[in-house]
Task: inverse folding
């Protein structure tokens, strides 16, 4: 049996038998000494250094791809020996797919989906940075692809592999804070004009000279063609809805993780934009307030979920006023699940688990909930690699879970972008009260970049 076939069959059988979130390290499978042939799509900056330093450098690095040779030059100087380098991942996959077991995708948000689909169609395991996709249809399609191609998948919301998020989920499931009906989450960004968010004076922004080493057409990928603008690169594309989804997708993917997992939140029925700062068309606002309405399920009642970003007057918004708290910034936490007996808080990356009020915190510390969720050793990349080798279960943020979390996030982005109230038909994947917004639930792709249409 060929190496790729063996790894694929082992991982496929493992994924089929693993039931989220029942983690259990050490199941039978491939030898833990086997090395996985890993390629990178997106090889520049800290975003590629993360997988390299957290497990992938211990495997066989077989190929690198990046559309910006200048941006990835330092990493390639330090990492690359004789491995081939590509500008176009489609070419890399056509030439080398038989030699690649797994791919880490660290590209801008708008190219996550086609790169991930192109790999999965070839039976290659994928680790895709967050958010999983740029629109809801893509997120749902990637979960269909996971089921069809039987590859090991993981989204890069690394807090999902932490002990802290497990402590929060275990405490909620043990009934420590009672029944939860409200969640508050916030982030102080985006800093418009800062390192990660451009602040253009007009739209469309003025063209800039093309830098050497950049394949602009490949960087655009599925997005509509337009002139190059220096403010897009390397990080500030996040400010533009055509490429990113603002601070809500950038950080909400981490911060929402605890309540989505603990409360088993599926898609909301209603999303409201309560307020947003004015912004140029196609540019994210410097601040907003979003309210989600999640229906009851068999385990809990309905949940109202509030998101705040940008500078806010916390004496007027995000008021909690329970269990010693006054607002959503209590104890410096980024998210609070408010129950009938107390609250559970976490930080921006789903860590920093804390219980309020103080008396309940002391009581819980003295009598902690039973540890029911297996811990992850070594972080999310090693979790993913173990699953590929058959020595560990399906990763916790596999696309079944990640697509659901991403859908929640992107529906909030849709409300933030267009304002007002959105009524969501989760069964059919459609906005019912404003059908014109369905053009953004499934965005058009340029010719040559269409994927997943038959799934």
Result:
């Amino acid at each position: 049996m060929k190496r790729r076939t063996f790894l694929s069959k082992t991982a496929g059988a493992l994924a089929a038998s693993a039931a989220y979130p029942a983690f259990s390290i050490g199941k039978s499978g491939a030898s833990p000494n086997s090395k996985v042939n890993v390629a990178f799509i997106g090889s520049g900056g800290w975003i590629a250094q993360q997988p390299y330093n957290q497990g992938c450098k211990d495997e066989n690095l077989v190929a690198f791809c990046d559309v910006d040779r200048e941006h990835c030059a330092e990493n390639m100087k330090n990492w690359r020996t004789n491995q081939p380098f590509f500008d176009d991942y489609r070419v890399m996959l056509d030439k080398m797919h038989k030699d690649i077991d797994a791919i880490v995708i660290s590209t801008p948000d708008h190219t996550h989906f086609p790169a991930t689909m192109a790999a999965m169609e070839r039976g290659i395991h994928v680790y895709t940075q967050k958010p999983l996709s740029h629109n809801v249809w893509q997120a749902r399609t990637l979960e269909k692809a996971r089921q069809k191609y039987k590859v090991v998948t993981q989204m890069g919301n690394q807090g999902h592999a932490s002990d802290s998020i497990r402590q929060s989920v275990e405490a909620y499931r043990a009934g420590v804070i009672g029944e939860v009906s409200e969640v508050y989450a916030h982030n102080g960004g985006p800093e418009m004009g800062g390192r990660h968010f451009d602040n253009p004076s007009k739209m469309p922004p003025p063209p800039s000279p093309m830098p050497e080493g950049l394949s602009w057409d490949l960087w655009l990928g599925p997005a509509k063609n337009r002139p190059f603008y220096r403010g897009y690169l390397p990080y500030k594309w996040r400010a533009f809805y055509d490429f990113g989804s603002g601070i809500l997708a950038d950080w909400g993917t981490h911060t929402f993780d605890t309540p989505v997992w603990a409360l088993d939140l599926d898609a909301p029925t209603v999303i409201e934009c309560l307020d947003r700062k004015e912004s140029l068309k196609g540019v994210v606002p410097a601040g907003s307030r979003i309210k989600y309405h999640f229906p009851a399920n068999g385990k809990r009642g309905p949940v109202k979920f509030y998101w705040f970003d940008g500078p806010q007057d916390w004496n007027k918004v995000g008021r909690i006023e329970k269990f010693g708290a006054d607002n959503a910034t209590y104890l410096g936490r980024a998210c609070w699940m408010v129950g009938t007996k107390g609250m559970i808080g976490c930080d921006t990356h789903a860590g920093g688990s804390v219980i309020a009020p103080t008396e309940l915190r002391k009581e819980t510390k003295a009598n902690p909930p039973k540890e029911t969720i297996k811990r992850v050793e070594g972080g999310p990349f090693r979790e993913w690699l173990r699953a590929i080798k058959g020595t560990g279960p399906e990763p916790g943020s596999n696309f079944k879970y990640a697509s659901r979390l991403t859908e929640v996030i992107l529906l909030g982005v849709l409300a933030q972008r267009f304002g007002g109230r959105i009524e969501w038909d989760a069964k059919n994947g459609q906005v019912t009260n404003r059908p014109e917004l369905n053009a953004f639930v499934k965005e058009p792709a340029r010719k040559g970049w269409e994927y997943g249409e038959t799934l």
Q: What stands out?
A: The mean pLDDT is 93. The chain has two domains: 3-158+376-396, 163-209+232-371. The longest strand covers residues 180-187.
